[in-house]
Amino acid sequence: MADFELRRPTSVAEAVEHLAEGGLPYCGGTELIPVMQLGLMAPDILVDLKRIEPLGGIREDAAEIVLGARVTHDETAASPLVRRHARVLAEATSRLGNARVRATGTLAGNICFAEPRSDVLTALLALEARVDLRSATDSRTVDVADFVEGPFATVRQEEELLEAIRIPVRASRSSYIRFQPGEYPTVTVAAVQGDGGCRVVVGAVGEIPGVFTFPSAEDVDAAEIAAQVDVTEDLGGREDYKRHVTEVFVRRAMAQLAEGSAA
Predict the structure, then answer these.
(1) I need a labelling partner for 27 at 20 to 30 A (CA). Which of 6, 35, 132, 211 fits?
(2) Do 223 and 98 sit in the same domain of this protein?
(3) Structurally, how many domains does the chain consist of?
(4) 106 in Cβ contact with 68 (< 8 Å)
(5) Same domain, yes or no, for 83 and 194?
């Protein structure tokens, strides 16, 4: 691993000043550190966010759940607030990776990395979440659907910090299901049924998750989704195989949704 300078700010204002000087933010480092060890990234400055208290915690703000940038997968999965209002995210974060990743990895870091097989991204897209981005000179809020541009690429500028994730609080039912025969999932499916219809998100089969909307859960067409989803052939399987498992697991997700309660 190349040499780097480690900075440990204690406030958001201090952190974004370090980013303006070329720093790269990190907290859990579960995806960043392995990439650095492979020599694929060599930042001169790492900005450790773990001492910034305002970036921690999960709270309800008006009609939204707000998760700070330091919130881990385990904290999300165990949160009564998330389990009550965004159960699909609690389910997704309780199953991803391994115990070490869930204990130390953060949701913010996960979606900033934009790994195509991200369980977190699949769930957040189903929930129509947004993210708060802040720099030393400006701040903005972006829909998660617009935040990820492609595999390992987001609209976050180098000087911006992903400060928080916002999830609207709505009456809904949801389900989350994944198929992982190997090290990574072959398909992940998140479904949310609310007053405005049913939103189905299929992740892992392609470079970015596919989002599909229907008037209601009863209108969801698994075969249509499997035919339309963008597929990337890789170690997870050929295109025809991935389309097949997509249809199977969309059907299972919808059956699970029909049996579930509000979440």
Answers:
(1) 211
(2) no
(3) 2
(4) no
(5) no
DSSP assignment letter at 51: T
Tens digit of pLDDT for each residue in 15-63?
999 999 999 999 888 888 888 888 888 889 999 999 999 999 999 998 9
88 & 163 share domain? yes
Question: Based on the domain organization, do 21 and 135 belong to the same domain?
Answer: yes
**Which three-class secondary structure state does DSSP give residue 154?**
strand
- State the DSSP code for 5: E
Beta carbons of 245 and 233 less than 8 angstroms apart: no
- The pair phi, psi for residue 116, each rounded to 5°, is -55, -25
Contact 167, 123 (CB under 8 A): no
Q: Do residues 192 and 237 share a domain?
A: yes
Which residues form the domain of 26? 5-48+55-168
The three-point CA angle 209-105-158 to 5° equals 70
| Helical (H) or strand (E) element with 161 | strand 161-168
Closest CA to 25 of 88, 112, 103: 112
Mean pLDDT over each residue of the chain, to the nearest integer: 93
Q: What is the CATH number of the domain that holds 240?
A: 3.30.390.50
- Helix/strand number for the chain, H first, E second: 11, 14
Instruction: Identify any residues that bridge with 197 across adjacent strands, giving them in sequence order.
Output: 194
Rounded distance between C-alpha atoms, residue 210 and residue 194, angstroms = 19
